Amino acid sequence: MKPNLGLAISNGEPQFLEKSRHEYNNEDKKKANLDDVAKDILYKKLDKNMFSNIKTCATAKEIWEKLTQICQGNDETKENKLTVAQQKYESIKMKDGETMTEFDERFNAVVIELTSLGKEYSNRELALKVMRALPREWDMKTMAMRESKDLNKLELHDLFANVRAYEFELETRAEAGPSTSQPTKALAATTTKQCSPSTSKTADQLSDDVMSLFVKKFGKYLRRSEGLE
């Protein structure tokens, strides 16, 4: 382990300088104590394998930097992870049978992963992405939200709270069952009754009636003409 370090300012930047304990002033003691607390917190969160990688680090800052390097890798590794995460973001869709809560968790996991890799999206970009990822039966709801909400100010958690409330309303209506009144069917039955063969004449029947009337009148006309002659 490295000897105890005291903090000093050189050229405007903090630097750790080797000091023995008896050389510490009050500020050194305070900073050393805070560093010990931070290291203790980190130690408690690490397993044996991970601890072996950071046991030579003297300060909490060194431990954190080492852990970051181990977990995120070098620049090339980070770039590959970012590419994979972006592909997941671009292709994400709500699955059949998936609840809005489940989709919320899955979408947020991708967003958090991207944020940890340095890629962030605006509220508007996230809102539009969620709306496009929903099935087509959500189109009316998402169109209404686009018109009524300021997407630049709409936080992701507020967006999902809104669509979850709408999902709950749809489920409640479905559980209540279909409406007992069926005006469309009643109207269809009435129309059928009015137009049934027993109560109305077809076009052919009407045509025959007109022709019969014409023949009768024409016969009378002929008889009248013969009488005049």
Description:
It is a single chain. This protein is mainly alpha-helical. It folds into two domains: 68 residues, no CATH class; 100 residues. It has ten helices and two strands; from the N terminus they run ββαααααααααα. It has a two-stranded antiparallel ribbon. The longest helix is centred in the C-terminal third of the chain and has 26 residues. The protein is elongated and about 145 Å long.
Q: Would you spell out the secondary-structure blueprint of this structure?
A:
Elements lengths: L4 E6 L2 E6 L7 H20 L2 H7 L5 H13 L2 H17 L8 H17 L6 H11 L5 H10 L7 H21 L6 H12 L8 H26 L1
Antiparallel strand pairs: 1-2
Order of helices and strands: EEHHHHHHHHHH
What is the straight-line distance between the termini?
145 Å
Compute the CA-based radius of gyration. Answer: 41 Å
Query: How many structural domains can be distinguished in the coordinates?
Result: 2
Number of helices in the DSSP assignment: 10
| Class from helix and strand fractions | mainly alpha
As a percent range, the share of helical residues equals 55-70%
- Form type: elongated
Mean pLDDT: 76
Strand portion, in percent? 5-15%
The major pleated sheet works out as: 2 strands, antiparallel
Please give the order of strands in the largest beta sheet: 1-2
Unreliable runs: 6-10, 181-201
Number of strands: 2
Pfam family, one: Retrotran_gag_2
Region (Disordered): 173-204
Biased composition (Polar residues): 178-204
